[in-house]
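Extended Data, panel c. Modelled sequence:
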Amino acid sequence: MTLLLILIGFSATFIGTLAGSGGLINLPAMLVAGIPIHTAIASNKFSNMLSSFSSFYVLLRKKEVQFRAAAKIAPFSLAGGVVGGMIASSLSERTMLLIGISLLIFAFLLSFLKKPPKVDDGIERLSKWSYPGLFGIGTYDGMFGPGQATFQMYLFFYQGVSYLRTIAYTRFNTFLSCLGAFVSFYIAGHLDWKIALPLAVGSLIGAQTAVRLAGKFSKSAVKLILRAITILLLLQLIYQMIGGKLS
C-alpha cells in the first residue's frame, strides 16, 4: 500500500503541476484503492498543504508577492477550510461518497473551461465580494477540493491581479484552506499517518520532477491523459458504489 500511495501522490502531482487539477486523480484513486473517503481527503489536505506552501515560499523569496498583501486575505481561506473540514467530518461515509462523485464530475467539466487571459499590470483591485468568494472556495477546498485552484485563479484574474501574484495568492490560500481542513479532520480522528505520509512523499517528488521536465511535455497531451484517467477512475467508483462495495 505504501508504494501505491507514493505512486498515486507522484502521478497526481506530476500531472497536476503540468496541467492542473491533480486532485481529479489522487482522490478517486485512493477511493478505488479502498481507502475511506474521510481518510483520503484528510491525507490529500496534508499533502496539498505541504506542496502549496513550498510553491508560495519560492515566489515569496523571489519577491513576486508581499506577505503583507497575502496575509490580508488569508483569514477567509483559513476559516473556509476549517468550516469545510467540519462539514465533511460530520457527514456519513456514503453521503460523502455521493457528494464526492458529484463534485468530481463537476471539477472534471470545469477542467474543459479555458482560463481567462493573463493580466500582468500589477494592479490590486479586489472588490468586497472577493472575500466571501474566497471563504466559499476555502469551504469547498476543505470539504473536498478538486478544481478549487481554478476557481481562485478566475477570481484573482478578473480582479486585475497580475499572473504571478495570482499563482502566489492561490498557492497561499490553498495552503491555508488545507491547513484548516487538516486540523478539522485530525481532531475528528480521520487522519491516518500511514496513508498521509507516503502520499505526501509521492507528491513532493512529483512536483519536483514536473518542474524539471515541464518544457518537455505538451500541456494539451497531459490534459488528455488527466481526463482519460479521471473518467476511468470515476467509472470504477460508480461501479463499486452500485455494486454495494462502498456502501
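The chain has one domain: 2-242. This feature is highlighted in the accompanying rendering.
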